[in-house]
Each structure stands twice: as C-alpha cells, then as structure tokens.
C-alpha cells in the first residue's frame, strides 16, 4: 500500500501561500536545516527525505530575489544580480540536501532544449549551467517516462541509463517498472527503509 510507503519517507512540500510574498524556498531551507540538525543528533525519525520539486523551488528563489530587490516579477524583467542570487540559492539548497546522511530524493520537471541541432531533455529550470550542474551533484539520476496506457491508466517507466536525449545514471536496472513502488527501487540501491 502506497500509504505505508509514504510514512517511511519525509516529504518537504513546497507551497506558496501568498504569491506577493514568496516564502516557499525560505521555508524549505529552514526545514532542510532542521532535518540536518536532527540527523546530526541521530534524532531524525525517517531514513529518507523527498523534495518535490526543484522546478518550483527555483521559481520561488527567483521570486524571492525579485521581492528583495523591490522588483515586481509579474511585469518587470529580473536583472543579472537577481538571476545570480537565485541560481546560487538553488545550488546551495541542492548541496545542503546532498550532504544529508540519508536517502535523498529530488524531483524536477524537464524541458526539451536544442543543442547542436539535437533535442535533449534537461532539468526545466533557468540558467545556462544550472540544469547541467545540478545532476552532477547526485550519484543517482532517474528519468521517468510517463505514457498513457489506455483505459484511463498511466504507465511509468524508470530510465536509469543515459540515451542520446536524456541524462540518467544508476545501479538500478534500466527501464525498471516504477509501478512496483519507490521503496522497491531504493532497496535495489542497498538501502533498507
């Protein structure tokens, strides 16, 4: 049952309560700092944490940087200093997440980009180098292919090996059936949750 699996992993939920005062990224950082302290003290009750997701986190950091610079992000274009601040905050968050001594899961959307006339899937966040550097921080990079299976059902296929268009790497078998559950996939990495 997925509810039992859910109780074995802490999920950092990102939510913007007031769009005019974006604080989701700040709250996520505070929550991550709290988790880090509990881990160091041996008091964190979970063996894994999931951050869902990077795409929203990056947008929240960008909006927060705009607000700090008194820039109305709904109608003004951010300047270089704002972009640099937001990119640095995303990198810092990801590095802090990676430093936790537990299983870490970070979800992100992808986008198609054209590189040398080839379409490639990259993390769907801003910055020239950020979509490339974030995967470099993690040992495991999984890509989920979602397909309509007919009859109102959706099929998820986990890609764990790179192809010409996606970045992926893992010790988990390529094209693993994601419908078997996340705990099963994580156990293939040698973690017992």
Mean pLDDT rating: 84
Query: Gyration radius, to the nearest Å?
Result: 18 Å
Task: Please report the distance between the alpha carbons of the first and last residues.
Answer: 15 Å
Coarse structural class: alpha/beta
Major beta sheet, specifics? 3 strands, parallel
Task: Give the tally of β-strands.
Answer: 8
Q: Provide the β-strand percentage band.
A: 15-25%
Q: Given the C-alpha coordinates, what overall shape results?
A: globular
Which residues form runs of ≥5 with pLDDT under 50?
Answer: none
Order of helices and strands: HEHEHHEEEHEEEH
Number of helices: 6
Structure description:
This protein is an alpha/beta fold. It has six helices and eight strands. The strands form three sheets. Strands 1-2-3 form a three-stranded parallel β-sheet. It has a three-stranded antiparallel β-sheet with strand order 6-7-8, with no helix packed on it. A two-stranded antiparallel sheet has the order 4-5. Helix 2 crosses helix 3. The longest helix is centred in the middle third of the chain and has 19 residues, at 80-98.
Protein traits:
193 residues, alpha/beta
Short description, anyone?
36% of the residues lie in helices and 22% in strands.
Helix and strand arrangement:
Blueprint: H1 2-6, E1 10-13, H2 24-40, E2 48-52, H3 54-68, H4 80-98, E3 103-107, E4 110-115, E5 118-123, H5 130-136, E6 143-150, E7 153-159, E8 176-177, H6 182-187
Parallel strand pairs: 1-2, 2-3
Antiparallel strand pairs: 4-5, 6-7, 7-8
């Amino acid at each position: 049952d997925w509810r039992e699996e859910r109780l074995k992993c802490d999920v950092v939920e990102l939510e913007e309560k007031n769009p005019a005062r974006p604080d989701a990224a700040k709250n996520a950082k505070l929550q991550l700092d709290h988790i880090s302290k509990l881990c160091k003290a041996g008091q964190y009750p979970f063996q894994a944490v999931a951050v869902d997701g990077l795409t929203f986190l990056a947008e929240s950091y960008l909006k927060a940087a705009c607000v700090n610079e008194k820039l109305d992000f709904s109608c003004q274009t951010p300047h270089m200093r704002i972009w640099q601040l937001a990119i640095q905050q995303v990198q810092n968050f990801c590095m802090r997440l990676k430093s936790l001594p537990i299983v870490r899961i970070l979800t992100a959307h992808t986008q198609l980009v054209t590189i040398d006339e080839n379409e490639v899937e990259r993390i769907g966040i801003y910055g020239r180098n950020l979509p490339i550097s974030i995967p470099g921080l993690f040992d495991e990079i999984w890509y989920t292919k979602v397909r309509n299976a007919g009859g109102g059902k959706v099929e998820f296929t986990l890609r764990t090996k790179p192809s010409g268009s996606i970045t992926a790497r893992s010790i988990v078998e390529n094209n693993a059936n994601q419908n078997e559950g996340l705990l099963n996939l994580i156990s293939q990495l040698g973690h017992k949750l």
